[in-house]
Amino acid sequence: MLDFIFLSLHYVLCFLISIAIWRGAKAVDSHSSSTGGAEMGPDGLVFIGKEEDIKKSQRITAKIDGREIVVFYHEGKFHALDSRCYHEGGPLCNGEIEDIDGQACIVCPWHKFKITLETGEGLYEGINPLEPSPTPKWQSKGVKQRIHKLTIDNGNIYASPPDLSVNFDSDYYAEKYKKGGELAIGKPSNLEGTE
């Protein structure tokens, strides 16, 4: 009988811990917006947040039609990109911003891919072996990450819905995580990679 009481208490405790973790995760994301019931701004733009709030936090995640984006405030400018890296879906919201060859770049925390905040270009450091003394230089892989146009109106930040007639490499992971809902920020397991 005593074993049954301890086992019951164990299950109740685990249940309460699960609820606390779940509510904690929701509380962390409570500052982000979503188009499910989100305010629509001028010309069909989607409300992201208050300008001052984003300036204070330096970054915020939000959703546009279920697609998660990350908005950065860096050196006096706002930038918005798909929140999942074009390479393998790493969470750019957890990345560090670095200056690379005069361009502000977000560095993906999973594989250190560098993406310009301004254009969404992927950058890599490479050499030209045909040069007499090759030296590494930063070069573009092309635009890989979808960027989102932002508008400031009366202290509010709005994003334009994405133009999906043009494809970007990050679209694959934006859709994958959109369908999967709020997937864990951690690296995907081998099972997820084989879907």
Describe this structure in words.
This protein has 195 residues and is α+β, with helices and mostly antiparallel strands. 25% of the residues lie in helices and 30% in strands. It contains four helices and eleven strands. The protein has helices spanning 2-28, 51-57, 170-179, 190-193, and strands at residues 46-50, 59-64, 67-74, 77-82, 96-100, 103-107, 114-116, 121-126, 137-143, 150-153, 156-159. A five-stranded antiparallel β-sheet has the order 5-6-7-8-9, with no helix packed on it. A three-stranded antiparallel β-sheet has the order 1-11-10. Strands 2-3-4 form a three-stranded antiparallel β-sheet, sandwiched between helices. Strand 5 (96-100) and strand 6 (103-107) form a beta hairpin. Mean pLDDT is 82; it is low at 24-37 and 181-195.
Quick overview of this protein structure:
The protein is α+β, with helices and mostly antiparallel strands and 195 residues long. It contains 4 helices and 11 strands, in the order H-E-H-E-E-E-E-E-E-E-E-E-E-H-H.
Enumerate how many helices there are, as a single number: 4
Overall average pLDDT: 82
Intertermini distance: 45 Å
Instruction: Give a count of the beta strands, DSSP E runs of length 2 or more.
Output: 11
Poorly predicted segments: 24-37, 181-195
The major beta sheet can be summarized as:
5 strands, antiparallel
Describe the global form.
Answer: extended
Q: Oligomeric form of this entry?
A: single chain
- Helix content percent band: 10-25%
SSE string: HEHEEEEEEEEEEHH
The amount of beta strand, in percent, is 25-35%
Give the radius of gyration: 21 Å
- Widest sheet: strand order? 5-6-7-8-9
Q: What is the SS-derived class?
A: alpha+beta
